[in-house]
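yo

u said u wanted the structure for the complex thing, so here. seqs first:
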Amino acid sequence: MKENSKVRHRVLDTVTRLFYEQGFQATGINQIIEESEVAKASLYEHFPSKEDILRAYLEDATARWRTDFAAFCNDRPPGEKTLLALFDYRKQRAVEGGFKGCTFVRVAYELPNLDEASLDIIRKHKAYIKTMVKQHISLLPVRRSARETEDLAEMIVWLYEGSGVQSSLERSAHPIDAAKKIAQKLLS
Amino acid sequence: MKENSKVRHRVLDTVTRLFYEQGFQATGINQIIEESEVAKASLYEHFPSKEDILRAYLEDATARWRTDFAAFCNDRPPGEKTLLALFDYRKQRAVEGGFKGCTFVRVAYELPNLDEASLDIIRKHKAYIKTMVKQHISLLPVRRSARETEDLAEMIVWLYEGSGVQSSLERSAHPIDAAKKIAQKLLS
DNA sequence: ATAAAAACGAACAGACTTGTCTGTTTTTTG
DNA sequence: CAAAAAACAGACAAGTCTGTTCGTTTTTAT
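structre next:
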């Protein structure tokens, strides 16, 4: 049972914190083994290279994003409420994480020559969000063509991305709030 | 005349290429001196540390962005045409640069603990664009309140940012084109 | 032409990097 | 309880990193 081992779990816990706070490159193997209280040989038994840690980190992050967001939307009805919860969720994460930006975009931007496997995890994460947005739009009372739904979903996703970037640069949640209001107006 | 020296110029030329292609941390001092054909002692005469190179790089990049964009808009009338040129300009840069994302956001995301001076250069660059967008909106025939102008400018800026991010993840200019069309619709 | 300034090549320091390997101890499993 | 598997601590390799310092050569300015 290598997949659920304690070593793996502790390493992923640690890098989830460190990669976000410091970035991937600024986080050394030695710091990882020290803070996760794991022997270097054990770490390399589970992750043959640092890139493998990165891939596992991304997979873990996208899985956790989905379950955490689902939990966040627990008591909200599908449709507009859940759709707008996207912005509230991002706001919460931004505040808690110190406004360092989207986990996934951060990796892609830090490593412009990222391997395709890792890049695909990031792409799929963004595609997942867009699909979700489209689904919730189609649940709304307003009748929309497929084309209109697609355009609206794109617009909302870009408001989400763009306000996330600006929130990070300004170290403020305001852009996310403002983008949410705009999205709300667009939906009605 | 240290500001216009050939050493400084060649170093900035080189890092403009290397920082964008590889990122800041992945670019070593030794590669910089080799490709800019400058002695290490000369480089450290002009830039006491690597962080100083980064600051100079950002200042240079924002200055060049402004002049290049002005040249790009050369024959376009102020108002909608120039405003939408923002998207065309971003598209051109994205294609030429291999879809590695916005120069400035890249730095901020790669270095989450960036010094305030550098972060301010980035913030001012984004503020400059937003101010420009507002100015061009106010030139349009449609009458808008200050509040409406502000909201519209924010929306356009986030479409610009968001589509830029997605364009980079997908390595495709399509999101920028699509965002431009949406912006166009919003303006009328 | 001569003096001052700038750029040069190259060695060097010291710390850090990822990854390997060895032998020991702990944990798990039959 | 014994055998197998996993995790351990830590030394080590080989290379990289930023930054300093040397004496020499080239360029610039008076």
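The interface with chain B takes residues 20-23, 25-26, 100-101, 105-106, 108-113, 119, 122-123, 126, 151, 154-155, 157-163, 165-166, 168-170, 175, 178-179, 182 of chain A (CB under 8 Å). Residues 1-48 of chain A form a domain with the Arc Repressor Mutant, subunit A fold (CATH 1.10.10.60).
cya
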